[in-house]
Specification:
It is built from 4 helices and 5 strands; from the N terminus they run E-E-H-E-H-E-H-E-H. The protein is of the alpha/beta class and 114 residues long. The chain has one domain: 2-Layer Sandwich (Transcription Regulator spoIIAA). It has a 5-stranded mixed sheet with strand order 1-2-3-4-5, with helices on both faces. The radius of gyration is 13 Å and the shape is globular.
Amino acid sequence: MEFTVETKDDISIFRLSGDFTFNTKEPLRIKIFEALEEGRYKFIFNFKDLTFLDSSALGLLIKSAKSAYTKGLHVKITNTNDRIHQLIEQAKLSMLLDLVPTEQAAIKEFNAKQ
């Protein structure tokens, strides 16, 4: 998996591509927890170019969502393919992981809550 991170105001945007698995999650985990340590709790994960997500990768997203949730914020997942969208819905994780159609829509939602 490859990813880029962009910060817009106080929002961390993670754009992921490839397979997000146990073997590829560590660099992203480090970046997520660096952002948390810096006091940034608004995360957008753009899955537009993500092809696969395994259970350990999903666990990392849940852990970051729980950390953000304690600050009253949520993690937003954008541009999911049908399979990943269905996985998040079936696992009833949409309480922690907000599924939003686009990155721009997620940014607007965060800005509306200010």
